[in-house]
Specification:
globular, alpha/beta, 9-stranded mixed beta sheet
Length: 208
């Protein structure tokens, strides 16, 4: 059984795949915050900007098997290029397993996952994006991109530079300080050329 908050077709707004058409499959639940606003301040990750509680989002629901979920997701694809699905959350690796990955590949998807890195990813995922959070050791310490929301109090970009990632991205933390956070992230990247600036362009353009 897979619990999914929402599934929708959109344009990837951040990271190295920004600008690509994609199906977003947002899984319910997270291991760093329960999603309830009253518990946000005492959670490990208290700056999340996503609703991942329940299965009541667009095209959300409970899927009994990986075949049903894969077929549902591919039904929303548009265009002629290779379909891309982004598995996100919450924390998708609480639910994503080898069986689901196999079925998603069978229907033609290239698979990307966005994870906090505290759970090791199954094999055969095509693109792994890890976004570290304060005070949590990474179990998934390699991948295609490490996307660090910046700033965070207890972790710094230099803490991750020796890990085996193909790309290192700094993403300004959203919220009331987004302008100053963006300036600070840009300045850091200007002086540390192994880091790239990642902006949440989907919010700028009004996409989900």
């Amino acid at each position: 059984m897979y619990s999914v908050k929402e599934i929708f077709f959109t344009i990837q707004g951040e990271g190295c795949n920004a600008g690509k058409y994609a199906i977003f499959c947002r899984f319910s639940g997270c291991n760093l915050w329960n999603g309830r606003e009253e518990d946000r301040k005492k959670s490990i990750c208290n700056f999340c900007d996503t609703d991942f509680i329940g299965t009541n989002g667009i095209n959300g629901g409970k899927f009994k098997n990986p075949q049903d979920l894969a077929l549902k997701a591919i039904s929303f694809w548009r265009g002629n290029q290779t379909p891309l699905i982004v598995l996100t959350g919450g924390e998708p690796l609480l639910q994503v397993n080898d069986s689901l990955i196999s079925e998603l590949h069978k229907v033609g998807f290239e698979i990307a996952v966005e994870t906090n890195g505290t759970i090791k990813a199954p094999s055969n995922i095509d693109w792994i994006c890890v976004s570290p959070k304060d005070n949590k050791k990474l179990k998934q310490n390699f991948g295609d991109e490490l996307k660090l929301v910046f700033p965070q109090q207890k972790i710094q970009p230099k803490d991750f530079e020796n890990l085996n990632f193909k790309n290192f991205l700094l993403q300004p933390m959203d919220g009331p300080k987004i302008k100053s956070n963006t300036i600070d992230a840009r300045e850091f990247c200007n002086h540390n050329n192994n880091w790239k600036l990642s902006l949440q362009t989907h919010k700028i353009l009004g996409y989900p």
